[in-house]
Amino acid sequence: MKTRFEKTSLLALATMMAAGLPSQVMAQEAEAADDADSGIIVVTARNREENIQSVPLAITAFSEEDIARQSIQELDDVARFTPGFSFEDFSGGFAQPTIRGQATARVTALESNVSAFYDGIYIPRSWAVDLGTANLQRIEVVKGPQSARYGRNAFSGAINYLPKKAVLDGEISGEIEATVGIDERRDIGAFINFAVSDNFALAASYDYSTYDGSWENSHPFANADIPGPSTEGNVGGWENQSISVSAIAELSPGFTIEASYNYFDVQNEARASNYLAEQTGDGNCGNARSIFFAPATLPLICGELPAPGETTTNDPRGYGAQAETGIFRFNANLEITDSLTVDYTFGNVNGDVDIATSGEPDPINCGTLVGPPTFDALCNFQNAPIGDIDYDTHELRIVFDNGGPIRGAIGGFLSDGVDNFRFNSLSLPVITDANNIVTVPGTPVPVGGAFQPGPFGITLQDATTTTEVVSIFGEIQWTSGDGATRIGAEGRYSETEVTTDDNRRTLTLNDTFKVFTPRITVEHDLTDESLIFATAARGAKAGGFNATAIDPANRVFGPEFNWTYELGTKNTLADGRITLNASVFYTDWSDIQINSPDPDSPNPNAVNITLNLGDATVYGIELAGRFQATDNLSFDATFSHTEAEYSSGTVDARYARDPGVTSDPPCDDIVCNSNGDIGGNEVERQAPTQVSFGAQWDAPLGDAGDYFIRTDLTWQSDFFADSGNTGVIPSRFLVNGRAGVTVENVDVSIWVRNAFDKKYVSNAFVVLLPFGNTYGEFFGERRSFGVTTKVRF
């Protein structure tokens, strides 16, 4: 990959369960900065610092040390060690985090069922949620609906990145870190904190990472000199950098202000992938049918999707996320009295994105999607999303806590943002010579409002969306006289006004969605080390618009909702050497937003719109534990199993579509229902079972320092790629390892990811269209290893 600098299990689970104690989803236990020997993380999921074992929420948290020792570098890694959480990348454009089986049904949805935050500031688009792990002190994943506390679209849970920033203790401190690895992996980063006085501090960081990717590209022009963004050399590489500055000032006792700015420049190549198309005869089940008068083909894939080979074939003109994101945060905290605090936070998120991936089953010769017999073969690219965002948020929170039986908070939230979004389908000539390469999009030429650098460019969507959110929220908690029992209630009322201008049709749509999301929590301390709790919470995800719907009544689709009921326990035993946590939950999920042909169109193959067509039920169990077996040896493990099933009568009408050439729908009433009924099917794109197991040895290195050795094993079950439950993504078992030494202020570690070089399908999507179905499968990263050195001062 050419840089711009150059150009300018299971055993651990059995042990844990044999202990006979249940276990709630917990943080990966690690040393907190202020309690290095406790093995307990301090989290801020409830807007205040708390020991994670005392919080009646299902939280998984990763400290800075966890992130390093478990070789976590992206959300896919976070998902491997977080029970009940999965993540799909899709080359970055429509990244989809999933919590507790509630996968976003529409892969192309701009917002997912999981909210993401950076230092408490909401990240409004899915292409910006996977920010990496540079300069982080902690990552928190909170499971279950968080709409009452976090607000917008925290439907099934929330992710919060907590960066390192200015602190008042010390004078000058910081670190410099560098990594060298195979496939041209090179990282450099630095963080410095400078306490100007006892009341004022500044901090700054810079991180740069470049990587050629772990998959060899067999395309004959993989190493062509392509101007502009591309996927050059191997596949799956990147060149990313981030910058942060922050400041904190204590203006007077009890009055503190903070300000920070974080900038992310992401230049990702396309992910290693493979596309399977009905037209090429890749299907193996369903109704046989003729497409464009070619021999009859089977439209669907049943069973496991094909495993990757030794190499992948990607058109080098395609690329993953080319994005820039800036996040500004300002916070003022005033302690009016010992029991009354006022907190104000302002945030701004702005950025832009450009992604162009090839969906060709034959990226060398092309022509499957646009080509014979009518045209010369063309190579098709999906250039989406393209656009930019600019969102402001304001939150005022007043907290009352005098140490008595009643504690509470009230507040208000305002958000105002603009999103420009385009989706282009671009078709370019086949590459026959390194000198005839046409870039995507290169230097775009505006034609009728669309970006068309080659023939047959079509703008599928061009919209400007303005979103204004007004919320009021409150919470109250009662504590019994002995302090052992607490009952809490939270609630948020939100009015979200959405205005969308369809720039292709000069059509403006506007609506206001009003929702109330409560949460009730009851918790009781069985002992000082054992907590049980029960919660009932409602989640809500915003609705949106269908500009192409024939009936005006269908031009607006409503929010989707869930009610989740959870029972959990957290336990710290044997003087802190054992933690065992568990959670069981049940979710009633309603009004699921599903892609569907327009029911009012006389053409059964009408363009997809979104309707609230589905319901589902979800239930499951999540376990986690840690055992300090000796002073040197420790084990940790997690397990989750989720049953997510569509309710009777739920219809995915794409399976009932007229294929356009024959009268038969793709389903044959054997492998799937020809009327589109998916009732009783598993919710797609989420692994029901996940397991992780880690073992770590820590010991002194004579009088010179310390050393550690760690291995991590993760496994997840197979799962369905589609709501028809035909295509299956196979299970996977992965192994990471890391070993390191610390001598005074220097850390040196060697690491390996995917140690046995497992080649696997990580995720996939299915596009069902009248003129042919397409399956896009994406491959996980292959084996990589390297050396990392950190110097602290």
UniProtKB/TrEMBL annotation:
The keyword Transmembrane applies. Residues 52-158 form the TonB-dependent receptor plug domain. GO terms for cellular component: cell outer membrane. It is found in: Cell outer membrane. The keyword Ion transport applies. Residues 325-754 form the TonB-dependent receptor-like beta-barrel domain. Residues 1-27 form the signal peptide. It comes from the Bacteria. Its main location: membrane. It is a multi-pass membrane protein. GO terms for biological process: iron ion transport. Keywords: Cell outer membrane, Ion transport, Iron, Iron transport, Membrane, Signal, TonB box, Transmembrane, Transmembrane beta strand, Transport. Belongs to the TonB-dependent receptor family. This is Iron complex outermembrane recepter protein. It comes from Parasphingorhabdus marina DSM 22363.
